[in-house]
């Protein structure tokens, strides 16, 4: 009897975690498709933008011990009726019995006029390299977005290019996820680095010389870095799978598609909800737990067991502010513990290394999922 075929689309943190977990907990034939032959540590892209060179990690090294077939190609279409996936470089589609959709997200440059032409995101290492190249020639830099990516990117750029004019433009106050102590340290760090914060402002247009804000003000910049707004690939919608208004696949508590039970979605491309009914934010932490729950659900159902549902809540924030500063907040209420400075930067570095280590040891994801 032929083995059950599991096809995983995307080899980011979520896709790799799910694929390795399925391969180790079942006899299924697992194949993973990814457009690039190397694993991208997306959480280090802000460091690449400031000139740091990340370690190259071939996907073949990460999957070779797990009986996972690696296909380096771009997915162009999904046929859920025939249970096939079309690839750009192959005439014949790949078939599957179970599909795991983990194609992640990309920068949304289409929401604001001029952003696609004049702004550079940090969503991929290639984008981050472009930021680094252009930042060396720019006398003024504007980073748009006050979330974690924007905060880490603007701090890295300001530290790497002292004396430049560096702006952070954000609709909401930066660091809104932090408590009062964390926000105070963030403000002091921005002052130390000379970052000019423009909060409460929305960008209405991006031009070759900077930003036009919705209140009519202009922010001059030779380089605009875009860190706000993420979109997902249109493949799930185009295939007729149930998706939300953003194109993220609708899934149940076990990360299984609500319209096609042979399909699962994990990571940013899934509209997963926790036990309280709140949608999981895009990010490595929730994505890793969801990948573990989805991978366990696939193997449990193959073994005839009832899978456990997703449970998740944010328990910590880790933010780097350049090479020797950061904020770690453990807990989200008034009793949260906050660590700042070099110690926080060291903790965040261990978190980044631990995320890659966990890909080699996927049972860590099982432990993480069981904590909630």
What labels would you give this structure?
single chain, 372 residues, five-stranded parallel beta sheet, 11 helices, 25 strands
A few lines on this structure:
By secondary structure, the chain is α/β, with parallel strands linked by helices. The protein is 31% helix and 26% strand.
Query: How much helix, percentage-wise, in residues?
Result: 25-40%
Nearest-integer average pLDDT: 89
Largest sheet, strands/sense/barrel: 5 strands, parallel
Write down the overall geometry. Answer: globular
Going by helix content, strand content and strand pairing, the class is alpha/beta
Rg on CA atoms, Å: 21 Å
Query: What is the number of beta strands?
Result: 25
Total number of helices: 11
Poorly predicted regions: none
Strand content: 25-35%
* N- and C-termini, Cα separation: 38 Å
For the biggest β-sheet, the strand order reads 5-2-1-9-21
Describe this structure in words.
The protein is α/β, with parallel strands linked by helices and 372 residues long. It contains eleven helices and 25 strands. The protein has helices at residues 13-25, 45-49, 59-63, 115-118, 125-135, 148-160, 180-193, 235-238, 284-302, 342-360, 363-370, and strands at 5-9, 29-34, 38-39, 57-58, 68-72, 75-79, 84-87, 94-95, 98-101, 106-107, 119-121, 140-144, 165-170, 195-199, 203-207, 210-213, 218-220, 223-226, 230-231, 249-250, 263-265, 270-271, 316-320, 326-330, 337-340. The strands form eight sheets. Strands 5-2-1-9-21 form a five-stranded parallel β-sheet. The protein has a five-stranded parallel β-sheet with strand order 11-18-12-13-14. The protein has a three-stranded antiparallel β-sheet with strand order 6-7-8. Helix 1 packs parallel to helix 9. The chain starts with a strand and ends with a helix. The model has no long low-confidence stretch (mean pLDDT 89).
């Amino acid at each position: 009897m032929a083995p059950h075929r599991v096809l995983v689309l995307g080899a980011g943190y979520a896709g790799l975690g799910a694929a390795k977990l399925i391969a180790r907990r079942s006899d299924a034939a697992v194949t993973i498709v990814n457009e690039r032959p190397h694993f991208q540590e997306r959480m280090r892209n802000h460091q690449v933008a400031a000139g740091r060179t990340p370690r190259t990690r071939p996907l073949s090294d990460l999957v070779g011990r797990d009986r996972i077939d690696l296909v380096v190609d771009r997915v162009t279409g999904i046929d859920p009726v025939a249970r096939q996936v079309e690839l750009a470089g192959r005439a014949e589609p790949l078939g599957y019995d179970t599909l795991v959709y983990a194609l992640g997200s990309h920068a949304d440059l289409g929401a604001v006029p001029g952003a696609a032409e004049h702004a550079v995101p940090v969503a991929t290492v290639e984008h981050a390299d472009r930021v680094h190249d252009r930042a060396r020639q720019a006398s003024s830099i504007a980073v748009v977005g006050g979330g974690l990516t924007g905060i880490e990117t603007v701090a890295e750029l300001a530290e790497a290019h002292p004396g430049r004019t560096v702006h952070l433009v954000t609709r909401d106050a930066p660091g809104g996820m932090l408590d009062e102590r964390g926000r105070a340290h963030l403000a002091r760090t921005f002052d130390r680095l000379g970052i000019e914060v423009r909060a409460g402002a929305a960008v209405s247009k991006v031009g070759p010389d900077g930003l036009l804000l919705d209140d009519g003000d202009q922010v001059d910049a030779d380089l605009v870095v875009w860190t706000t707004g993420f979109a997902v690939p249109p493949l799930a919608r185009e295939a007729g799978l149930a998706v939300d208004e953003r194109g993220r696949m609708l899934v149940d508590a076990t990360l299984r598609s609500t319209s096609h039970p042979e399909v699962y979605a994990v990571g940013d491309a899934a509209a997963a909800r926790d036990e309280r009914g709140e949608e999981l934010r895009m990010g490595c932490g929730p994505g890793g737990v969801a990948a573990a729950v989805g991978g366990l659900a696939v193997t449990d159902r193959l073994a005839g067991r009832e899978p456990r549902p997703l449970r998740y809540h944010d328990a910590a924030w880790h933010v780097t502010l350049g090479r020797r500063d950061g904020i770690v907040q453990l807990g989200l209420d008034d009793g949260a513990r906050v660590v700042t400075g070099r110690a926080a930067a060291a903790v965040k570095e261990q978190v980044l290394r631990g995320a890659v280590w966990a890909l080699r040891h996927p049972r860590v994801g099982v432990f993480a999922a069981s904590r909630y």
